[in-house]
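Summary for the steering committee. One of the milestones for this cycle was to obtain a three-dimensional model of the protein with adenosine-5'-triphosphate bound, which we needed before selecting residues for the alanine scan. The sequence and ligand used are listed below.
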Amino acid sequence: MAQSIAIASGKGGVGKTSIAVNVALILRQLGGRVTLLDADFGTANAHILMGENLSPKIDKAMLSDGGLSDALIKTSHGITLLSGGSAARDLIDLKKTDRLQLIRNFDAINDETDYLIVDTPAGASDATLAFVAAANCVLLVVVGEPTSFMDAYTILKAANLEHGVRSFSVIINMARDGQEARRHFDQFLAIALRFLDVELTYAGHLPISAPLRRSVVMRKPLMANSNDAIGPEGQALQSIVQKLLKAPTNESHGIRFFLDTAGKET
Ligand SMILES: Nc1ncnc2c1ncn2[C@@H]1O[C@H](COP(=O)(O)OP(=O)(O)OP(=O)(O)O)[C@@H](O)[C@H]1O
Ligand SMILES: [Mg+2]
């Protein structure tokens, strides 16, 4: 069965898409067949970071019964992209039935995918929570600011209390160093454990990185060329991927990517 990893943060602009794209590239370099779902419907931008130009007709196709395959874009990076479309207002407020249909449609690519990375939109909308609950690994991206802690906690609480998700991995992004990052993780962990029955696994930190920021401007992902010398941010991303592959999985019941409602493999 394909593995699904949902990346969420609550707060916007903390690095979800940058991390999603680079994690996808690393998994590809490790030999995996990777699909990236940019679930930021209507304002998707993973394709921009990847230097891909989208044809707008893909937007609605992925919501139709069996239409997922038509919406897949083979990128030049060897990753398959499913984009929520940009400048497409009709996709912004997806109906619940459309969301569930989309999650179920992934069964069609189970045999051709090893990893599905889901880049979720900022906020704690029903859509974000549905994608988080449907994944078997949930990665929360947190930066060391009270607003980020608060927004990540909102996702954690809603995913836990409303969908029964217990296990989460956490990355501290834009950290000054490892010690500061660990301190921020411990603070976040203490808040979470005080109020919720959850299990948080520290997946490591990503330093503040000028090359990472530049890669967005250049539309060439940091990990796009495995022959380039890998800087500290690249090593940090590789280490994050290794931790994610070993992290406890989401055992909650409900509609899942590549699983039926009873939690049985399809
Ligand atoms: N570790 C980092 N060091 C420096 N800049 C970073 C780092 N991580 C992310 N950024 C920058 O922060 C900005 C926001 O990143 P990104 O778009 O990945 O965030 P996001 O969480 O997906 O945002 P949104 O909520 O809008 O979808 C980008 O300019 C990106 O280059
Ligand atoms: Mg984003």
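Key point for the committee: Residues 146-163 form the longest helix (18 residues).
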